[in-house]
Amino acid sequence: MSDPVFALTFVTALGSAIVAGLFYAFSSFVMAGLDRRSPATAVAAMQGINQAAVRPPLLVPLFGTALLSVAVGVAALIERDGAASWFGLAGAVLYLVGIVGVTMGGNVPLNERLEAIDAEGTEAAAEWQDYLRRWGAWNHVRSLAGLAATAALIASLTS
Fold this sequence. Notes:
- The longest helix has 35 residues.
- Helices cover 88% and strands 0% of the residues.
- Helix 1 packs antiparallel against helix 5 and helix 2 crosses helix 5.
- The N and C termini lie close together (9 Å).
- The mean pLDDT is 96.
- By secondary structure, it is mainly alpha-helical.
C-alpha cells in the first residue's frame, strides 16, 4: 500500500469510527432516553434533533467519509494489493451501503414522516412507537455497518 493510500485509508477509518460511534450512542441510550418521556415530548425532541442534525457537525463526517470511502474503493481497485485492497474495498462498500444507503433509504424517510406529525396530536403516541421501532432497527444496522467498515479499513492498514 502506498503512503498516500495508507493516509487516505487511515483518515477514512477515523471518519467511519466517528460516525459509527454517533449512531451507537443513539442505539444504546439516546432513543431509550427519549422513550422514557411522553410520546409528545419524545416526538418533539426527536424533531428538534433531526432539524439540528442537518448541519456541518454531522454532515461533514457522514458525507465526507462517504467521499473518502469512494476514493479508498477506487484505490483498492487500482492498486490490487492483495488482502489490503480487499479489506479496503470491503470497508468502503460497508460504509457506503450500510451507512449512507441505510441513512438515505431508511432513516431519512422516517425522519421526514416524523417531522410531518403534530407532537401534541392524537397520533403522536402510535407514530412514536412505530418510529422508535423502525428507525431504531435501521440505526442498529448503521451502527454495525460503521463498526464493520472501521474494522475492515483498519485490517487493510495492517495487511
